[in-house]
Amino acid sequence: MKRRHITQIILILLVSTGFLLLFSQSSTFAIQTFFQQESGFPSQTYIGPVEISSLSKEEAINKLRSRVNEWTKNTKISASILDTVKPLPTDFFQFDIEASVDNAVEGKRNPLVVNIPDDHWREMMRELNMSLLSSHIDMNQANNALIPIAESLDTKPFILSLADYLKADSIQGTIASSVGKETGYIDLLSKWVGEYKEITIPPGSELSLKEYMEQKGAIGYSNEFLTMAASLIYETALKSNVKVIERHISENKPMGINDGFEAKIDDDYDLKLYNGKNQPVVFTSELDKSGHLNVYVSLKDDPFRYELKKSNEKQYPPREIIEYEPILGQKQDVPGREGYSVDISKEIYYQDILIKSEPVSKDFYLPIDNRVYKELPDPSTESTLIENSGTENADVPQMNDSNDPSVVGSNDQSGSSIDPSASSLPENDESQSSASDDPTAIYDNETIVK
Question: Where is this region: Disordered (predicted)?
């Protein structure tokens, strides 16, 4: 019986002791909270980069709010995808200042509570015209990249590449390549592949092909060959995420180059490319089994697929220029070449979804006239030719007064020139957008007698 009473007394003492300890702890916390509001946070207390030592709770909240407002006005954070860059709106980040102060541990460095609502991301993707990709981007990883910047109130400019946060199972490494046409540069092709098998553009750098060749001490290459090689590099760049800064074309359509993809190289013209990625881009040249030059670039970790489309292809027949000479001698007819125009556009796909289409170029080439040389008939036989009429005198220049409006042509120099207004062909400016406003203007296949 006594033992039972002793046990009960011990239990009562234990319960009483626990109650007293709990009450003392609660009292201590209440007293500390009261005096903290009166005397402020102790030394070395931070929230984010902001020190709140000796400040009351209200003062700490006001100081944090002021610093956050200042950061919001001065920060320059943007999101980018496929060369489209948009600054984040000022309310993109949500700062919970009250929670940051309430959860602060005295004498410690405490985090500034920041979050990014999902609907803010959806709105940003809409502004980037990439709503179709919203469900494929790992927003948690993107938040992990942005929130530390906001927590530290860092004002350094920052651009978030959203392509880096496409979900891992969506990444598709591919290879973009272009194959040249049959050319007569057999020896030069082997020399090129031996000397310039790989051309590298470092991250965030620009490549000038002319400067690159000069730095490498290139010798023995004609401008025509360099144009052929540059054209394949240009075409391959269009099939990748490399940006074309400068590119030119010729006045007349060149031989041996894929239609719509010429990149002319000479003393005045250059090909310039820019690599905006955070890793090098390497253009590799190889000869295939048929002896054709093949240029390719690896698109490792690039989730997008690029396709080039041709449209509005047109040919323009050359005119025929007939020139009469007193003595024909060794002159031979010179064949002309058709003019040509084409529009190139670029389609960008994510998996099988078309997410962007953009124009690339409008190329226009003037035709080259056919030149036919004929010997001038003996004037003494002219009347006989006219009397015989028929179609035999169709190519014979009439020896009439040059002032007669019925005259087709004459030996007078002023009457032999071709009126430029007779041709409605647009002028070729040899630039990236090389076609005129109307590259399909009518061009008659006419015969000019001189």
Answer: 376-450
Question: What span, in angstroms and rounded, lies between the C-alpha atoms of 339 and 322?
Answer: 19
Helix axes of 186-195 and 223-238: crossing angle, nearest 10 degrees: 60
Bridge partners of 362, per DSSP, are: 343
Query: The tokens 């092909």 sit on which residue?
Result: 209
The answer to which of 261-275, 291-305, 432-446 has the lowest mean pLDDT is 432-446
Instruction: Let me know: does 264 contact 249? Beta carbons within 8 Å.
Output: yes
Q: Let me know: does 269 contact 351? Beta carbons within 8 Å.
A: no
**What is the identity of the amino acid at 248?**
H
pTM equals: 0.68
Mean pLDDT across 388-405: 41
Burial class, 432, CB count within 10 angstroms (exposed 0-12 / middle 13-18 / buried 19+): middle
Q: What is the DSSP string of 170-235?
A: G---EEEEEE----S-HHHHHHHHHH-SEEEE-TTEEEEHHHHHHHTT--S--HHHHHHHHHHHHH
Identity of the residue numbered 24 = S
